[in-house]
User: Fold these one by one.
Assistant:
Number 1:
Amino acid sequence: MNQHEILQRYPWDPARLGGKKPVEYFFSVELAASPYELWPHISNTTEINERLGLSAMTFTERNGITIGSNTLAGTAQEWEEVPWKWEYGRFIISERIYSRGLTSYVRGIFDMEDLEDGSTRFTGYFGFVPKGAKGRTILSLAKPIFTKNYISVLKNIESEIIAKRNPSGVASYEIRPLESVFTEREKSPRTSPMDTAKIREIYRELKTVAELDETVVKSLIQYVLTTKTANLYRMRPKELAETMSVDENTLLLTMLHATRTGLLNLTWDVICPHCQGIRERADHLWEVNKQARCEVCRIDFDASAVNAIEISFHINPYIGELKRVLYCSAEPAKKPHIRYQNELLPGEEVSFLVPFSPGRYRMRKLGQTTFILLDIRQDQPVKQLPWSGQTPASSLDAGPGSIINIHNDSDLPETYVVEEYAEDRYALRPKDLFSMQEFRDLFSRESLSTDLSIDVGVQNIVFVDIIGSTEMYQREGNSKAFSYVREYFKLSHEIARRYRGAIVKTMGDAIFLAFSSPMDAFRASVAFSTVFDGKNEKTPIRLRISLNRGSCLAVNLSNGIDYFGQTVNIVAKLQKFATADEIVLSRDFLENELVKAYLKKQNIAVPEVKAGEVAGIGDVEYALIKARYARTPVYS
Ligand SMILES: [Zn+2]
C-alpha cells in the first residue's frame, strides 16, 4: 500500500486540515510475524514510545476529556485525546487535537495486512497539521530520523517475537543467580533508580518466612529488578504466575508478604464494566465508594457489583520514587478485550467481519448501557447482522465469518464497539482475598466502608461447632475446657490455610469458613471430622459440620470483613440435622458438578436428599455423608 492508497482507505476529514497541507510521514515494511503476534506490541503505544525514546506524557481528566501534555523539540505541548479507532489485528487510528505546541492536529494510521504466510505488511502514516512555519520546519526536518527509528523499533519487535517462539509456543521465564541480577541492576541504573540495598534487605526478610517458597521469592525479586518500569505499576499475580510458570497461590502469598515488608503496595482498583479501565484506585478497601463513573464510556456504575473491583500490586515508593511514565491513554493495548471500536459520522455505513474465534461478544454504543450479546458458534450459519438505531438489550447467534453491517442513522457521530465478553481471568477479586486465611491474618485492618457491601458471588461456606460444649466445660472445668477450645481454634486456622480458605468469623465456639472452591471446602470438612474425632489428646472434642454453596455479600462488621446472606443463614441452620461423624451438605452444595464427580470417584454413594424444616427459613433440602467414608482418601 502506498501513501495515496492508505489515505483512500482512511481519508482525512477536511475540517481537520483547515485548508492547510499536512506534514506527512509514511513508511511500509514487511515483518516476519503475523498481525496477531504483532498486535500486543503495535497497539501498546506506551511501549512503542518508550522504545522510540520520546518524552514521557502526563494525562489529566477535565470534564470527561483526557488532556495530555509533554514536550517536543523543547516546546510544551497540550492536547485533547480523541477516542481511538481500531480493529483487532487490522488497523489503529489515533487522533489528537492540540491546544498548545507545534501542531494543531495529528493523526496516526497503522495498517496491518495479513500476508497469510505468518508475515505482515505493516504500513504507517502520520499527518501533522502545523501551527506555523516553525512547526512545519521542525516536523519536516525530523521526518527521516523519526521514520528510520520507527522502522527499527518494528524490526526489534519482530526479532523479539521470533526469539520468543519455541516449540511449546510459550516463552520461558529463566531464573538466574540472584546475585548477578543485583549486580547487573546496580551497574546500569535505568531512568527510574531503585534502592537495591533495600530490596536486598527485603529479600533477606522474605527468605525467613517459613511458608514461602524460596524459588518463588527469587522469581519475584528478579522480576522487580529486571522488568520494564511500566510493568511495575500494575502487577497482576495471576498473570505474573503464568509468566513465571509458578503456582498462582504461592505467588500471591509471596506478594502479600512482599507488601507487608515494603517491597510492594496493594490497591483496590474500581474497574469500568465497559472499557475495563481503572476509574479509581484506593489504597484501602474502606476508601472505595459505592457509586462510580466512567467518563470515557459516559456511564455510571456500581462499584459493589461482582466484578467491579480488582486488586493489583505496585512497587512501593520506599524502594525508589519511580516517576510514573505514561505515553498514551486511549491506546487499544489497555483494552485488549475490545476487538473493534470505530466512530461513524451521521449516515456512514461500514461492515465488520465478526471475530472467527467462537465465544461471547458484546455490541454496544459509547454512552449507552444497553447492549447486544453476540454468540459466535460453529453450529450457526454465516449471517448478515444489521446494527443501527438504538441498540436494544438482546442476544444473537451467528457463525464465524458473519458480518455486522453498521449504519449510523442518527444526526450525531456515534462510536460502535464490539468486545469479548468474558470474565477477565487474570483479575484478582476481593472474594479471592477474603477467602484466603493469610490475607485475613496479614491485612487484618482492611475493612469495607460502612455503606458498602460487595457482591462476592458464589462462595462455599463451611460451618463447624463443638458438640456438647456446655457439658464439656462442666465435666472438665473451665481451665481444661478452655485449653481444648484454644487448640481447636489453632487447628481450625491451620485447616483453613491448608485448604486455601479463610475463617470468616467465629461465634462462641462456632466457626464460619469460606472457600473459593467447593472441593477445598469439602476436603476441609473431612479434615475437621478427622482431626476432631474425639480421640485427639490435646482436644478430645467432636464437631457438627455443615456445608452450603451460594451467593454472599461481603460487609463490614466490628471484626473485619464478614459474609452475609441466605447462604450463610442456611449453613448455620443445617447443623441441627448433623451428629458427630456426619457432614451435612445442602442440596446446592451436593449438586455441584465437582462434588458429584468426586463422590463418584471415591465410590461414595450419592446420599439421599431429604427435606427438613428450620426456624425462620422453612423447608431446606440437605443430605448426610458419613465422614468416615470420605475420610482417609481425602485427608491424605
Ligand atoms: Zn469505561
Number 2:
Amino acid sequence: VNPDATAADVAAVLKHVTAQLPGHEDRPGQMRMAELVAEAIQSEKHVVVQAGTGTGKSLAYLVPAILSGRHVVVATATKALQDQLATKDLPFLDQHLGQPFEWAILKGRSNYLCLQRLREATAKGDGQLQLDDLAPTVRAEIARLATWATSTGTGDQAELSWAPNPRAWEAVSVSAEQCPGAARCPLGEPCFAEAARRRAAEADVLVVNTHLYGMHVASGGVLLPEHDVVVFDEAHQLEDTISSTAGLRISAGRFSAVAASVRAIVDDDGLAGAIAGAGADLAAALAPLAGRRIALPMPDALVDALAAGRRHLDVAQEALRNIDPPLVDAQQRKLRAQRASTSLTNDLDKAMDVPPQHVAWVAGPDHQPALEVAPIDVGPLLDAAVWGVRTAVLTSATIPLGLPRRVGLDEDAVDVLDVGSPFDYDANALLYCAAHLPDPRHATFAAKVHDELEALVLAAGGRTLALFTSWRAMREAAEALRGRLPFRILTQDELPKPALVEAFSTDESSCLFATAGLFQGIDVPGASLSLVTIDRIPFPRPDDPLLEARRELAGSSAFQVVDLPRASTLLAQAAGRLIRNATDRGVVAVFDPRLAKAAYRWDVVRALPPMRRTKHRDEAERFLRDLRGA
Ligand code: SF4
C-alpha cells in the first residue's frame, strides 16, 4: 500500500497487471482512467469518467483504489457486474497485483438464508404450522435448502446451482425490516448475513449494489462500514436508484406480509384478517388513481384508508406486546412481527404527511396498485451522505448530459472526463437515420417502420436486435414481419431474458424483437448481431409522475435537463448493444426522423458512439451485405 502512489505509479502497476491477461493488448483509455481515479483519490476531488464499452473500467478503478490503501466501496447497478467483479476481476487482482488486500461482497439480508427461519421451518412444532399451506414440492425444496445450509460457506442464494421457488426461499429468509438483529437472535452468531457484514467490515474493497448503497444513504449511513472512497459504476442509473431507495412504497402486499407474520404468533385469525383487509381497502382506494400523481394534501378517501390501516396495525402492536411466548422460536416470530408492523406503521405515517420536496403517486400494475413517495431532488441527500464526506468516482459508458447537477454535485467540485472507446466505430459501425419517414405520431409511421425493417433485416441476413419503445409497437412489428422474413423472430414476451438471449445468440440468423427492458444489459458479440434498430428516440412518458415533478422543479429548462439526457442516454445504451468487441461490425438504424431534423438532434447524436452516419438506406443495406460477404 502506498497512500502517496502517484498516477504514474498506478499506471505502471496497471500495465504490469494487465500484461497477465490472456490476449492482452494496450488500452490507452483504461490507463487514462486509472490515472484519473488515482488523482481523484489523492486530491480528494470527485471525478466523473465516461469510458466506452471495452475500456476495462473495473480494473481501471480497482487498481488505483487498492493501491491507495483507502477503504473503498464499489456500488454496481447490476447483479451481472457484481458477479463479474466477484468471480473475475477481484480474484484476478488477488493473484496478480502483488499486494495483499481483503475484499468482500455484501448483499441485502434477504439474499442470505436465515438460520433462525430455517430452524423454525424444519423443527417439529408450531413453526411448522406456517408451512401447512405450502405445496409438497415447495416443502421438498425447503428440505433441500436445509441440506444446502449445512455445506454452504456463505448462505448466499446466488451460490445455489438451482433456482428455488420464491415461496420456498421466502420461508427460509428474512427481509432487513423483519430481522431483529444478531444481538436479539439466538442464531445471530452463526448467521450468514451477519458473517457477510463482518467480512464487509474488514474488507479494503467492498462490493455492493447501488440499491444497498441507497439504503445506506437513506438510513443515515448506518448500513455499511466506514469508507473513504465510493465508486458508482453504471452511474447513469444513480439518480433513479437513490430516488427509489430514499422513498417508500406501500401496497396491499405489505399488509398481507404483516398479517402473515402476526398470524404466525397471535392466535387471532380475525386480527390478521383485519390487517390484510385494510391492505385490500387501501388498494381499492388507490386503484382509481393508478399511474397518476397524487395532489397534496392527499384526497380524503386515501387518507382515511391509510389511517384505517394504521389503526389495525396499532391493535396488532398491542396484541403482540401482550403475549409472552415461552419458547425461543415463538419469541423470534413475535419480534419479527413487531418489526414488520412497526416498519409499515412508520411508512404509513410518512405517507400521511408527505415531506416537502417529495412527490407521491400510484404505481402499477393496475390490479396491484402501490402508493409511492420519493424525493424530487436526490442532490441534498447525496450531498450530506456522500459528496460532503468522501471521494466519489462515477463512471459509465454513457454519462448523461448534466449528470453532476442532477445528483447534486457542485460542478466546481468535480472533474468530468471522457476517456473514449477502444473500438474503431468509424470503420466498423454505421448509423443510419431514416430521415424520410413521417413523424412517429403519424398514422402511417408503424407501416413504414415495418418496410424499413424488412429491407434492412434481409440485407443483414437476420442477425437483428429490433428495439421498440412500446410493447404494442413490438408485437405489431413481429406480427407484420413474421410472414415477410425467412428468419426466426423471437419476441421478448416469449421467454425469460436469459433464455431469450441464449436462443438469439445461438441461432445466428434469428432476430430478437424487444422493448426498453433490453435497451441495456444484453451482450451478444459476434456474428449473431449485425443490426440494431430502434423505432423512436426513447423519450420518457410525459405523464410519469416523478419526472413530471422534476420538470416542474426545472422550470423552463425541463426538456433540456430532464427529458433530453434520459432519452439520449437510453438511445446510446441501445446503440451500444451493437459493438461489443474490437472485431464486431454492423449498423445501428434509427427510424425516428427527429434524429436528423429536430433542433436538439446534436445533443442526441453526441451521446451515441462515434459511428459514421448516413440518411440513405441503400448505403446501410450495402454495408450489411458486405459484412456477409466478408
Ligand atoms: S440475525 Fe437471526 S433472524 Fe436475522 S438473518 Fe440472522 S439468523 Fe436470521
Number 3:
Amino acid sequence: VFQAYYQLEARGWIEARERSGYFVRAPRRAAGRSETSPRIHLLQGGDSDLVMEVLERTSRRDVVPFASPFPNPRLFPLEQIGRVMAEAARGLSPAQTVDGLVGGKEALRQAIAVRYLQRGVTVSPDEIVITNGALEALNLSLASVAAPGDAVVIESPGFYGAKQALHRLGMRAVEVPVHPVDGIDLQRLDEAIIRSGAVACWLMPSHQNPLGISLGDAKKRELVEMVTRRGVALIEDDVYGEMSFDHQPSRPAKAWDRAGVVLHCSSFSKCLAPGYRVGWVAAGVNASAVSRMKLNTTLMSTMPGQLGLARYLDQGSYARHLRKLQHGLAAQATAYMRAVQEFFPAGTRMQPPTGGYFVWLRLPEEVDAVDLYRRALAQGISIAPGPMFSNAALHRSCVRINFSIDLDARALNALRVVGALATAMQRTAAARQIGSVY
Ligand SMILES: Cc1ncc(COP(=O)(O)O)c(C=O)c1O
C-alpha cells in the first residue's frame, strides 16, 4: 500500500500532509504551453535554422538517417558499458560522489593520459579537464582563450557547432576554406590570422567533419609551429581521432605542441559510449582557466559515468573494440562509395575518408543540395546538405553522408533514390540551359 502511495505521490496525483495522511491533489493547470506549441524553437538566422531543421527531421524513426551526426549505436559494446557503469554506481562511496570536483575524476584523467601515450603524445593528467562531451570541452576552450568581439578562425566546410558557438559568444568567425582532398592551406590560414588578428583557430586536423580527410604528420607539425609563432591558441577538435582506418592510430596536432598552446578536445561519444556525455580537453597552458570555467558553469561531470569509463578503460578491452570498430567502418565506407558510384550522377566526386563515418559528395554543380535534401526528405530519407557546414552558405552542390548506418536493403534503396533524384535534377538543369541557349 505504501509503495502505491509513493508512486502516486511521485506522479503528482496525491500529496502527503504531515500527521494526516495522503490526499488527492487538486489538478493544477499547466501555465502557458499548449498542445500546439512547437517542440523546438528554431534559432534565428539562415543556416542555423537549416542545421536545426535537418537534425530534427533526421531524428525521426521513420527516416533513413544519412544526415545523422551520430554513429550507428549498434557498433558499441553497450551491454558491457552498462555493466561497468552499474558496478561503478553501486561501488560509489559517499566521499567519491563529490571528489574530483576540480578537473574531474583522477582515475579517468589518468586513463586518458595513457590513451594519449598510446597515440604518441605526452599529456599530464593535470592538464586534462573532464567535460560533458566534446562540445562542452570545445565551448569552454573557446571561452577561455577568446572574448566577445575577438576573431577566431574556423573551417569551411566545417562543424556547424563551431560557428554556432562563436555566434553565441559574440565572436567573429573567420572562415578559411578546407580543400576536400588536401585539407587546409596553411599559407592561407597564416594570412587569415594576420589579416583578421585572430586569437584562436578551431580546427579538425584528423578525420575532418564533414570531409572525412586528415592532414599528414608534417602538416600537423607545421600548423602547430605556425600558431605558436603567431601566439594564437589552437582548439583541436579530435572527436574522431580514435577512429582511424590506418593500422596506426592517428596522431593529433597536440603531439607537436611544445608551448602548451593546443587545447585538444575529444570524447567517448563517437567511439565508445554515445549518450553518456563524457568528454575532455587537454588544455596545456590554459588548463587552469578551462578548469575554473567548468567549475563556474556546469560544476562537474556525472560521477558514475566518469568512474564507469575509467573502469572500462582499465579492463583492457578498449583497444580490441576500437580495432573492430575501425575495421567495420572502413568496410562500410568502401561499400557506400561503391553504391554512390553506381547510383549517383556522372561527375560526382568523393575522397575516401581516412577515418570517422562521414563521406563528402561533390555533386555536379547543377544539383542544389538543399533542394535535393528536401526532395529526399519527402521520400523518408535525410541527407546533410553542404550549406549546413559554412557561414556563407557555400558548398551548394555538396552533401555529407553518414556511412555508419547499416547498408541493408532499405539503406541501399535510399541511396538509389537519392542518386536518381540528383540525376533527374542535373538533367532538368542541363535541359533548361540548352533551352535558354536556343
Ligand atoms: C566535429 C564534432 N565535434 C564535436 C562534436 C560533439 O561531440 P560530443 O557529442 O562528444 O559533445 C561533434 C558531434 O556531432 C562533432 O561532429
